[in-house]
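Worked example

This section walks through a single chain of length 305. The input is the sequence exactly as stored; nothing has been trimmed or padded.
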Amino acid sequence: MASAQSSGGGTELGQFLRARRTQTRPDQVGLTVGPGLRRTPGLRREELATLAGMSIDYYVRMERGKETRPSPAVLDALARALHLDDAEHQHLRELAARAARYAPEPPPPPSRTVRPHLKLVLETLRPNPAYIISRSMDLLAWNPGGLALYAGLADWPATQRNLARYIFLHPTARTLFPDWDELVRGCVARLRSLAGTAPDAPDLTHLVGELLLKSPDFAKLWERYDVVGRKRIQKTFHHPQVGVLTLSGQSMNLEGTPGQRLGVYTAEPGTPDHDAMLLLDAIAPEPARHRDIKREQQPHSQPRP
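Given that input, the structure is written out below as tokens.
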């Protein structure tokens, strides 16, 4: 089982190369496999080194985390040999850059404080479900529909509300998402990409360590070291309170708050999906702070003469 932390930047680079090598079949890169059983899944080290035009010893040092300053030409050659896509190629460059300047001191986690005007934005987005999450997918702020959309999440303490934790550990998640298998692959790929360039960040290591221990599904996907997940514009929910609804999702980085993202779901007015979304907003419990915000937004009544 992979550790949530690494001992150095070169280690993470080596883990990524090994994962991509063992998942690349010889026939995918034009190699002919002879008769007999291959003990190595995917490519052998010497096969990849030959394809990339480098010595076997040099490649082995990279995979073992002992070579931390590969040139851009070496990285490009490995990317071509492994048929990496653009996102994976960029991740390889970022890992190499981090390996070259690795410092053992973990960086401080990003701020978890959501600015007051962003909470007002969440309220004005109603009835569209919306929320703000941290880079490690902690739920930091939400409107009623944004929390209620993930059925059962409100039963957890606020400090435990994390979308990755929900997807893997909440018993409702597998029935809520009909495409759960695909959804979790994208979730792990996102965390893998973040942890690859910040493997010692406390917010990421705590979450990854917990999921490695508690979810065999997460541990299996984590070992694959995929860093690219399919982003779906639409997501279907089999919600226990409002039925089946398919919503279009959009997320965006928030200015001035590194690591925080706004997520919002929409549906075309007049459709059954929009009606279900309206119902969800209507029946969702409304926290006290949201009631306070709505009162502040209402015009003050004028005293009668």
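What to look for: Residues 251 and 263 are 4 Å apart (CA to CA).
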